[in-house]
Amino acid sequence: MTSAANGVTELVAPSSVVCLPGEPVLFLANNAVVAIGRGIARLGTRTIDGVSGEVLVATVCGPLTRRKGNFPGAPWSYSIEAAGGRYLPCVGDAVVGTVVRVLPLSYQISLGGAHPATLDALAFDGATKASRPRLKMGDHVYCHVVTAAKDADVDVSCCAVGDMEAKEWTTGESVFGPLHHGCVVRVGLSYARKLQSSDSSNIVLSLLGERVPFEIAVGANGRVWVRGAPSGADASLEQTRTIAVAACVAESQHDVTSLDVRARVESYFPAVGGAHHRVGGAGATESGTKNALSSADNEE
């Protein structure tokens, strides 16, 4: 049992053990400030060590995840994501979606859930009726969930959220927006959350960033978009990098230890060279989302 700030006591260590349904995972004092996500339910009021509060239990099988809030001063959020199963949209999730239907004023986006989400045609920073992305069937977008009420339609947006600096979609520097070229691979939901987090045990992206330049957008819905950096000297290098990075990221979800991860990355990219990549994650700021974990080309 470990204590955390703001009146929250963690009854299990985050990201280190698999919680079983019904197992107590958090104890919230009366003054606790915290956001509770999926996979956790309130059990009732209890008194532990003379402190009165609420006990929260797991409702699914998976590791407890702790994440920072979407903006400065926001409370920590906790959730438990089952390794398998269908994705359930949650407000604030950064997701990778695929266009499955084009309408005059909106797009239907598949997130891997039971029903497609709706993306307004103008839900891009700087978009107007005359200047907006013209998406086609099969195109991929990086967006965040705006509404996800039970038994209601899911809405997503590609506009900046929280303290992100809004940049017009035409600049190519916005956090959310169309994902051009590259490929999309599917991973477990809990592994996707781990890739999005700043957990020090998540080393696969930092190791890859030391060896090869690429871009990546990680969706909480278990979809990961990867694009290797193009090379003027070799036109085929972009595709080679894309395939290798995507395969390495997907296969690393089955590695148990950091040594396993290092060995896998080394098997794909044995030579160390300058690199740069951007990581899309839920709740990240623009600079954190676009450049997190990238430092090998000494831009910082």
UniProtKB/TrEMBL annotation:
<dbReference type="GO" id="GO:0071038">
    <property type="term" value="P:TRAMP-dependent tRNA surveillance pathway"/>
</dbReference>
<dbReference type="GO" id="GO:0003723">
    <property type="term" value="F:RNA binding"/>
</dbReference>
<keyword id="KW-0694">RNA-binding</keyword>
<dbReference type="GO" id="GO:0000176">
    <property type="term" value="C:nuclear exosome (RNase complex)"/>
</dbReference>
<dbReference type="InterPro" id="IPR049469">
    <property type="entry name" value="RRP40_KH-I"/>
</dbReference>
<dbReference type="GO" id="GO:0034475">
    <property type="term" value="P:U4 snRNA 3'-end processing"/>
</dbReference>
<dbReference type="InterPro" id="IPR026699">
    <property type="entry name" value="Exosome_RNA_bind1/RRP40/RRP4"/>
</dbReference>
<feature type="domain" description="K Homology">
    <location>
        <begin position="182"/>
        <end position="229"/>
    </location>
</feature>
<dbReference type="Pfam" id="PF15985">
    <property type="entry name" value="KH_6"/>
</dbReference>
<dbReference type="GO" id="GO:0071051">
    <property type="term" value="P:poly(A)-dependent snoRNA 3'-end processing"/>
</dbReference>
<dbReference type="GO" id="GO:0071034">
    <property type="term" value="P:CUT catabolic process"/>
</dbReference>
<dbReference type="GO" id="GO:0000467">
    <property type="term" value="P:exonucleolytic trimming to generate mature 3'-end of 5.8S rRNA from tricistronic rRNA transcript (SSU-rRNA, 5.8S rRNA, LSU-rRNA)"/>
</dbReference>
<dbReference type="Pfam" id="PF21262">
    <property type="entry name" value="RRP40_S1"/>
</dbReference>
<dbReference type="GO" id="GO:0071035">
    <property type="term" value="P:nuclear polyadenylation-dependent rRNA catabolic process"/>
</dbReference>
<feature type="compositionally biased region" description="Polar residues">
    <location>
        <begin position="286"/>
        <end position="300"/>
    </location>
</feature>
<dbReference type="InterPro" id="IPR012340">
    <property type="entry name" value="NA-bd_OB-fold"/>
</dbReference>
<feature type="region of interest" description="Disordered">
    <location>
        <begin position="279"/>
        <end position="300"/>
    </location>
</feature>
<keyword id="KW-0271">Exosome</keyword>
<protein>
    <submittedName>
        <fullName>Ribosomal RNA processing protein 40, putative</fullName>
    </submittedName>
</protein>
<dbReference type="InterPro" id="IPR036612">
    <property type="entry name" value="KH_dom_type_1_sf"/>
</dbReference>
<dbReference type="InterPro" id="IPR004088">
    <property type="entry name" value="KH_dom_type_1"/>
</dbReference>
<dbReference type="GO" id="GO:0000177">
    <property type="term" value="C:cytoplasmic exosome (RNase complex)"/>
</dbReference>
